[in-house]
Fold these 3 entries.
Entry 1:
Amino acid sequence: MIYKDRVYGPIEINEQILLELIASPSLQRLKDIDQAGYSEPFFPGTGHARFEHSLGVMILLKKFGADLEEQVAGLIHDVSHSVFSHSIDYILEEGSEKKHDHQDNIFSDFVRNSEIPKIVEKYNIDLDYILEEANFPLKEKELPDLCADRIDYSLRETLTYGTGDSRLVKLFLDNLVANNNSWIFKNFETAQKFADNFNILNSKFYAGSRTALMFRTAGDCLKYALNKGYITKDDLYTTDSQVLEKIKKELSADERLKLFYDRMHNKKKINNNPENFDVEVYCKSRVVNPLCFNRGKLMRISDINPAWKKVFKTEQKPKKYFLKFEE
């Protein structure tokens, strides 16, 4: 199979377990799960699916020499995402506005109840080993470290959101190494450029005010539809399109639902005003502090650039917004 990726270009995938997982219902469902939440109404032209990010993480790991088990773990790492991705953290108690961790909290159970265990076991790979995150430090690490997940979505969104072009992405990839289970930049200059770009993505897109609007309005619409019985909790683990179709059928008979639907589609004015607001909304904030080689030593950029310590201290805290809805 030749897969053409927007970040890494064409890549050949021959491993049967990877091909079978890619073709599985759990991975195919992610083609209709928006990576960012519900992008188009708030960030027109930027929509991209969890599916391409999932393959991207696997491809990145493959390119940097990770073993097959880690590639498998990278490929399936997002299968537990609900419809509209992190919007679920604004609906169900299993999630958190500040942490955006719903998919992590249900991941193991979700995978075990899917077709994935049979595929993995067919190729004599231990499912328990695959599900243990600590086994795969290249795939996943806590902020502010880099990991394949974090690297891929930031490179992918550099292109989709336009904070950089393919030359910048190539610069980052050409200057990365995977060494002793850590991602390391070859020099301080590229590491700092990556961190700066990541900070722009965070402030404008990952944790910006429009993102808070997107999550809150999508969450409110889905939660109302759930409470009214227009959709079920099981529907939250189908696809974006399927849930929207169910909601659309009820719009003409429910004015309140129509209001939530219009807000979700950015058709109602909403202000961020701490002096006059209807609801407080949080967004998870992300900041990285990459490792790099500098004058023969392995260092974090904050060790070289003390100003980054202030950035890190500020940006690691969840962002808080005060939304006022106009009917």
Entry 2:
Amino acid sequence: MKKSLYIANTPFQIITSILIQESFPEYEADIIVTNLMRNADVVISKLKNIGTFDNVLLYSVPQSKNDMAIELIKQDTIKHILPDTTHNRILVCMSCLTIDINHICYDILLRRNKNLQICGYDEGYSSYSESFFHPENKLSGIHKGINALSRVLFHRKFLQKFDYLFVYMPEMIKGKVDCQVIDISCNGDVLDNSRRKKIFEAFGYVSEENIISDKYIFFEECFLEDLKKNDDIAIVEKIGQIVGKENILIKRHPRNKENRFQKIGYNTILNQEIPWEIYELDEKQPQHTLITFSSGAAINFRFLTSRKEKTVLLYKCYENTNFSLMSEDTQNWFLSYANRYQKDVYLPLNENDLEFYLSKKEDK
């Protein structure tokens, strides 16, 4: 029996890893989950019970650059947690190729198996636009220096290109593909009941405890944590004036430490371990309108299900305010996405457009 090693840093990467593994059971598999995900240890304890992976392993990412440099050189932590077995392929998120653990694991596994395959897997829109498609070109000068030194001193090997890609929507890829692409969609509904149940169990999701009746869900993004500035509270207040503050629920970004919206009277989803995509996989959930600048959570669920939700993307409406601006090719991908789902995705160009759209929905 052949064996795979998955590396996952986010809830959506875990979902995709489960789906790929359940779709290709001819491979046995282990998975490493990193603590880049909030409460990774809690998720791991549940993930062990679903039976998809032989070994579910936690990797704690070094907190300082010095510790990370030492880990890159010595590889002690990874060697300690990796099963002493031969893997035939390593699967990493295709937009996270620059994450150090991926390179370390690849080097170790390649020493055990010279025919090791490198597979990239999809994690939503960040895997499709040109700027994300070749992340190895974005290595920092420090990383390039360490990699070059490691090649000379330790004969290390680093991830350069993929042998295979596992992708939900191959036709939406904007970058140049020079390897085999494997379609992991299932005609609009990725999950049968068996796989849906396993994903719910992996995240401790119980439908009866998580029904959301709020009409509007606003998706906070990580601009405040990353950029130390954001205008999203003022924008949510503007939306609240149109649809009613009591009708808005805030889906917090898991990397933001402070619950800013709760402090000013908004209801928020308190459970940070359950990704929004899982709520969308629940057929008992009522319909909502999802509002966001550009959050993957409000977009990625369509890779998994044909469920109809309205999504309002604000990145054009507020493109000159204090949040991360998109690259041109990422905007082009968003436009392609909006055109593909034009009945359900709306891109207001300004606040007047937004107010007209939301007021019209409230009048119905």
Entry 3:
Amino acid sequence: MYLSQAGQDKFILNVLNQKRDGYFLEIGSNHPVNINNTYLLESRYNWKGVMVEYEHSFLSLYQQYRPNSIHVINDATQVDYKSVFETNNFPFSLDYLQIDLEAINGSTLMALQNLHANIFDTYKFATITFEHDVYHTNFGNTRLVSRDIFKNRGYVCVFEDISCDGNAFEDWYVHPELVDMNYVNKLIENNKKNYISNPVTGLSIDYKTIEYN
């Protein structure tokens, strides 16, 4: 059922209790269907959102397979997200933010800093998946700087250093004002036992071992 590469859509739907008619901002959309974090949300749960992608060749596929969403073909670090949200009457509380860019060239951190400066004062996201790719790069100390930004903005990290095949690459967050924290706290507690030793981060959790309540 789930279509994300590492269970991101499963995390979102479980935390949000299978929510329908949600809103997302997907930064680094890549293919609109294959291992895409929001295709299931849009196609089966009637979500809509903003898909941001640098590669223009994906546009025709977006138009074909993602008709409910807004397609922004641009450098994610330079997008005026506030204008996009305002133009399309997006709510101030959104349901999911994905940042999945190239940490090795700094675009991941720059996109987050753009949101930090221009979006986070007005808009909040119930769930976030942030790809730091610390297993192969530490450009600008992306992993720790991003954690400081999210903490400063009131987000709670549910899972640190999600891993795939032993490679720790992503953190998953929630905003406590927008989710059921009783559920989230149980999720955190029940999965502490599933963290294993990791040579880069000390500990990580394989997405396949996450247990949902």
